[in-house]
Design goal:
The complex is a heterodimer of chains A (533) and B (323). By secondary structure, chain A is an alpha+beta fold. Chain A has helices at residues 6-28, 30-35, 48-51, 62-83, 110-118, 148-173, 198-206, 222-227, 284-296, 333-344, 362-391, 393-416, 422-451, 456-488, 492-526, and strands at 53-60, 90-94, 100-104, 123-124, 129-130, 132-137, 141-146, 179-183, 187-193, 211-215, 234-239, 249-253, 258-259, 263-270, 276-282, 302-306, 309-312, 324-327, 352-360. Chain B has helices spanning 19-39, 46-49, 64-72, 104-119, 133-161, 164-188, 194-224, 230-262, 268-295, 315-321, and strands at residues 43-44, 51-57, 80-84, 86-94, 124-131, 191-192. The chains are: A alpha+beta (533), B alpha+beta (323).
Chain lengths: 533, 323
C-alpha cells in the first residue's frame, strides 16, 4: 500500500500540476491572463448574484399556442377550399372548444373536402399518430381537433421559435455572455449579467411584436363599432390606450396585407415631424404585395397593427412602391429602438409572461466577492494552522492537499463552465472545512494503530486502509445529498451543489491519494522508527 | 514541538449510560422545535410565498419606522420591512400587484424606489426579486421534496451498506436534525429562502457523514469483539472516533465562523443554519443514531459467519485483509 511505482507518482504529480495550471486564469483576472497569453484557457464565470444582472423566467401561454394553431388552420382550410377545382363552398366556420368545425354546403363535395383537410395533417414521430384528428359529423360537418401529441409538438415548435427570437433580441442588445435556455416544456430562462435596466429588458423580450398591415373596413357604422359588431371577414380593434383608457375602436379586414415576417430590416428613425419612429423594409415578395395593394386602394386608409393594437391608420395617398414604410406612434427614442429590435428579430410565436424576476445590482456582487474571498482566506489559514499544530508533518501534508484541492476545484469549475455563485462560495468554504476530514480520519487512525503498538509502516498502512473505507462511505452519502440538490434544486441551490460535488470528488484524490504518496515517500526515505503525529 | 491533542488518548466516556437522559432531552427539544415551527411558522421569503422583494442599502442604520410610514402611504399593499444581515440593509417585501398587465410590477418597483430615493438620495438598491405564486409553489414543493428524498436516499444507503438498524437510526437522527433546524428558524424568524434549503441539505449531508464514520466503527468493532455487549461496543466506538469527531467539527466550525463574520450579509442566514446543523448533527450522531442502535436490538453475532454483502467497489473486502 505504501508502494508507489514511479509512473504513479509522475501521473499524480502531473494531474495536480495540470489542475494548478488550469486554475491560474481564473485566479489572476482577465487582464493578467491576457498578458501571460493564457486567455484561451477557460475561466470561471461569475454567477448573476456576484456579477450583477438580471434573471428572468418566462412562461408561455399554452392556451395561446392552441388558439393560434386553430386560427392558422382555419386560414389554411379556407384557402385550400377556395383553391380546389372547382372551389368547395364551406360555411359556419368556428374554432370554439378547441376544435375547428365547418360545414360543407354541397353534399356531393363532402368527401373531397374531407380528403383535402386530411392531407393538411402530418404524422408525428414514428408512432403513426397525426397532429390533427379529423372527423365527419352529421354527414356534412367536418371537425378538426389537435391530438395530444399534436398539441405537444405545436408547443415544442413554438417554444423553440420563441427561444430563438428571445436570443436574437438579447444579442441585439450586445450584452456579454447572456444565457438563454429552455426550461421544461413551457419556460425560457434568461440571464443577462451586468445589464442595468431590467425593466427595458423585460419590455423587449416579453413583447410579442406581431406586426400587421390591414386595410380599414370603412363600411361599419359607429354604433356597430361601439357595440363591437364586425361584419364577416372584418374585426374590431382598438387604438393605443391613453392614460389607462382604451383607445377608440376601428374595424379592419381580417386578412392582413402584409405582416412582420415579410420584413428584412427595421430600425429606429425620425418621421417628418422629427418624432421618433421605426422605419421598416419589406422583402421582395412583401414589397411587391404592398405595392399592389396600395395601388388598388389609393385614398383608402390602412391600419398598422402591433400585437393587436392599432398604432396608426394613415391614408394611402399614392401607391407605395419602394418596399419600405415608416411606423409612427407615441414613441420615445428608446421605445422606438426596442420595437425595431423586436421587429427585426421576428415576432414571438407564443405570448410569454414573466413568472420570476431577480435583479442584482453590481454593488452587492462586488461586496459579496470581497466578503467571500476574505472568508475563504481566513478559513483556509485557520484550518491550516489548526492542522499543523495538531498533526505536525502530517498536518503539512494535509495542508498541501487542501491548497491543491482549492486549485483543482477552480480548474474543474472552469473546465465545466459552471459559474461561481454566492452559495458556491459558501460551498467552497465548507469544502475546505470538510476536505480535511479525510486527513483527520486517516491521521487519527494512524495514531490509534500506533497506540495499539503497531510499527510505523503497519500503522500508516492500516490507517490509510481502514480510513479509506470510511472516507468512501462518508463521501458517497455526502454525494447523494449533493446529487439531489443538483437535480431538484433551483438557482442558488444548484450553484452550491456543483461546488460541493466537485469538492467531494477532488478532495478524495488530494486528501487520500496525494497525501499517501507524500507519506510513503517520507517513510521510504527516512525509515522513521517512531512517528511524531 | 508537542502536537495538540484535543481529546486525550484512550478516553472512556460513558456516553451510553447517559442515553436515557439524552433521549428525554432530545425528545423535549424536538417537540419544542416542532411546536414553534407549527405555531410561529417560518418567515418564508419571496422564493416560497411569492411576491416582491427589494433590498435597499442605506448610508446610516436604516430608518425602518420612517420607511414604513412612507411606503404605507403608497397603497401598494401590505409592506413588510426587515433588517437583513446588517443594520444598514433592509429588505422590503410587498405583495405582487393584482393586475395582469406586464408592466404593473415594474411600476410598483419604480414607485417604491422613487419614494425611498426622495427622502434618502444615497440609498442603493442591491436586489429586486419578483416571484409569482406559481413559481414559488414549485420552489417550495421542490425544496420539501429534495429534503425528504435526501433523507430517505441516505437511510436506504445506510440500510444496504450496513444493517437495517443503521438505516432506521440514521433516518431518525437526520429527521431530528432537520426538525431542529426548522425550529431554529421558527424561533429566530430569520428569513427562510432557497439558500436555507441548500443549508438544510448540507446539514443532512454533513450529519450523515458524521454518522457513517461512527457506524462504520461500530460495525468494525462488532466483528472484532464478538463477545462484547452492544452498549460496550457503542461506547468504545464513540470514544475511539471522538478525536476525529471533535477535530472535524472544529475545522468545519472554523470555516463557518469565518463565513459568518466575514462572509457578507447575504450568506448570514445560511451560515447560521449550518453552524447550528453541525452542532445538532454531531450531537445526534452520538445520542440519537448510535444510541438508537441499542434500542433497536442490534447485536454482534458471535457464531454466525460474517455476512458479506454485495457491496460495490470491493470496500468490504478491504476490511477482511487486515485480520
Amino acid at each position: 500500500m505504501l508502494d508507489f511505482p514511479r509512473w504513479k507518482r509522475i501521473a499524480i504529480s502531473l494531474a495536480l500540476a495540470l489542475g494548478v495550471f488550469l486554475a491560474i486564469p481564473s485566479l489572476i483576472g482577465e487582464t493578467n491572463a491576457k498578458r501571460l497569453h493564457l486567455d484561451a484557457l477557460p475561466r470561471i464565470s461569475l454567477g448573476l448574484d456576484l456579477a450583477g444582472g438580471s434573471h428572468i423566467l418566462l412562461e408561455a401561454d399554452i392556451q395561446d399556442v392552441a388558439k393560434s394553431r386553430l386560427a392558422a388552420m382555419e386560414d389554411q382550410v379556407r384557402s385550400q377550399m377556395r383553391r380546389a377545382d372547382p372551389p368547395i363552398e364551406i360555411g359556419d366556420v368556428s374554432t370554439n372548444n378547441g376544435s375547428l368545425t365547418f360545414f360543407v354546403r354541397d353534399a356531393t363535395r363532402v368527401d373531397a373536402a374531407f380528403e383535402l383537410v386530411r392531407s393538411q395533417t402530418t404524422g408525428i414521430g414514428t408512432s403513426g399518430q397525426r397532429d390533427w384528428e379529423v372527423r365527419l359529423v352529421d354527414g356534412n360537418r367536418v371537425v378538426m381537433t389537435p391530438t395530444r401529441a399534436g398539441l405537444e409538438s405545436f408547443i415544442n415548435e413554438a417554444m423553440n421559435g420563441a427561444t430563438d427570437v428571445v436570443r436574437k433580441r438579447i444579442d441585439a442588445l450586445g450584452t456579454k455572455e447572456p444565457t438563454i435556455i429552455r426550461q421544461g416544456s413551457d419556460r425560457i430562462l434568461v440571464q443577462v449579467p451586468g445589464f442595468g435596466d431590467p425593466a427595458a429588458l423585460k419590455a423587449l423580450i416579453g413583447r410579442t411584436a406581431k406586426l400587421e398591415f390591414k386595410l380599414v373596413d370603412q363600411g361599419v357604422s359607429q354604433a356597430d363599432l361601439e357595440a363591437g359588431h364586425a361584419p364577416i371577414g372584418s374585426q374590431i380593434l382598438h387604438f393605443e390606450s391613453v392614460n389607462g383608457r382604451p383607445g377608440p375602436p376601428i374595424a379592419v379586414q381580417r386578412r392582413a396585407i402584409i405582416n412582420g415576417s415579410q420584413l428584412t430590416k427595421a430600425q429606429q428613425a425620425y418621421d417628418q415631424n422629427n418624432a421618433p419612429a421605426v422605419s421598416i423594409t419589406f422583402n421582395s415578395e412583401g414589397g411587391r404585395r404592398f405595392a399592389q395593394v396600395t395601388r388598388e386602394n389609393v385614398n383608402k386608409p390602412f391600419a398598422i397593427i402591433l400585437d393587436n393594437v392599432v398604432l396608426s391608420a394613415p391614408n394611402i395617398n399614392e401607391p407605395i412602391l419602394g418596399g419600405s414604410a415608416q411606423i409612427m406612434g407615441s414613441f420615445t427614442v428608446e421605445s422606438a429602438q426596442q420595437l425595431a429590435i423586436a421587429l427585426q428579430s421576428g415576432s414571438l410565436p407564443v405570448a410569454l409572461k414573466v413568472v420570476e424576476e431577480r435583479t442584482v445590482g453590481p454593488g452587492l456582487g462586488q461586496d459579496s466577492i470581497r466578503a467571500g474571498i476574505t472568508a475563504s482566506i481566513i478559513a483556509s489559514v485557520a484550518i491550516i494552522v489548526f492542522m499543523l499544530v495538531t498533526y505536525g508533518r502530517f498536518g503539512v501534508y494535509a495542508n498541501f492537499a487542501v491548497v491543491l484541492n482549492i486549485f483543482v476545484i477552480l480548474a474543474v469549475m472552469a473546465m465545466l463552465g459552471s459559474a461561481l455563485t454566492l452559495p458556491g462560495i459558501a460551498g467552497f468554504v465548507l469544502t475546505i472545512g470538510t476536505a480535511v476530514d479525510a486527513n483527520v480520519l486517516i491521521n487519527e487512525r494512524i495514531r490509534e494503530e500506533l497506540r495499539r503498538g503497531r510499527n510505523v509502516v503497519m500503522a500508516v498502512e492500516l490507517g490509510y486502509k481502514e480510513a479509506s473505507r470510511t472516507i468512501f462511505e462518508a463521501n458517497a452519502t455526502h454525494a447523494i445529498s449533493g446529487v439531489i440538490m443538483l437535480l431538484l434544486g433551483s438557482g442558488p441551490v444548484k450553484g452550491f451543489a456543483v461546488v460541493l460535488l466537485i469538492g467531494i470528488i477532488t478532495s478524495v484524490f488530494t486528501a487520500v491519494t496525494f497525501t499517501r504518496m507524500l507519506t510513503a515517500g517520507y517513510i521510504r526515505r527516512r525509515r522513521p522508527a517512531t512517528l511524531h503525529i | 514541538m508537542r502536537l495538540l491533542k484535543l481529546v486525550p488518548d484512550n478516553t472512556n466516556i460513558g456516553f451510553v449510560s447517559l442515553r436515557g437522559w439524552a433521549f428525554g432531552l432530545t425528545t423535549l427539544l424536538t417537540v419544542i422545535a416542532v411546536f414553534f415551527t407549527l405555531t410561529r411558522g417560518l418567515n418564508l421569503g419571496v422564493d416560497f410565498v411569492g411576491g416582491l422583494m427589494i433590498e435597499a442599502k442605506f448610508e446610516q442604520p436604516a430608518p425602518i419606522d420612517q420607511l414604513r410610514g412612507d411606503l404605507d402611504k403608497l397603497g401598494v399593499g401590505e409592506v413588510s420591512l426587515q433588517q437583513f444581515g446588517d443594520p444598514r440593509t433592509v429588505s422590503i417585501r410587498l405583495p405582487l400587484p393584482k393586475s395582469q398587465d406586464p408592466g404593473a410590477t415594474t411600476a410598483v418597483v419604480n414607485k417604491v424606489q422613487a419614494t425611498i430615493k426622495q427622502r434618502f438620495p444615497t440609498v442603493q438598491f442591491n436586489r429586486t426579486d419578483t416571484v409569482t405564486g406559481k413559481v414559488s409553489g414549485e420552489l417550495i414543493r421542490n425544496g420539501i421534496f429534495a429534503v425528504i428524498l435526501a433523507v430517505f436516499a441516505i437511510a436506504i444507503f445506510g440500510w444496504f451498506r450496513f444493517e437495517w438498524q443503521f438505516g432506521l437510526s440514521t433516518f431518525v437522527a437526520i429527521g431530528h436534525d432537520v426538525l431542529m433546524t426548522l425550529g431554529f428558524f421558527a424561533v429566530t424568524q430569520l428569513e427562510f429562502d432557497l439558500n436555507i434549503v441548500a443549508a438544510v441539505l448540507t446539514i443532512v449531508g454533513y450529519s450523515i457523514n458524521d454518522k457513517i464514520v461512527i457506524d462504520d466503527r461500530i460495525r468494525e468493532n462488532m466483528r472484532k469483539y464478538r463477545q462484547m455487549d452492544m452498549r460496550g461496543i457503542v461506547d468504545l466506538s464513540v470514544n475511539e472516533t471522538l478525536p476525529r469527531t471533535v477535530m472535524t467539527s472544529l475545522t468545519v466550525l472554523l470555516a463557518l465562523g469565518a463565513l459568518l463574520i466575514w462572509g457578507g450579509h447575504v450568506l448570514r442566514g445560511f451560515t447560521a443554519a449550518m453552524i447550528l446543523g453541525v452542532i445538532v448533527g454531531t450531537y445526534s450522531s452520538i445520542y440519537v443514531s448510535s444510541s438508537l442502535l441499542i434500542t433497536l436490538g442490534l447485536k454482534p453475532q458471535p457464531l454466525a459467519a460474517p455476512k458479506v454483502k454485495g457491496a460495490p467497489g470491493g470496500a468490504e473486502r478491504v476490511t477482511r485483509e487486515g485480520y
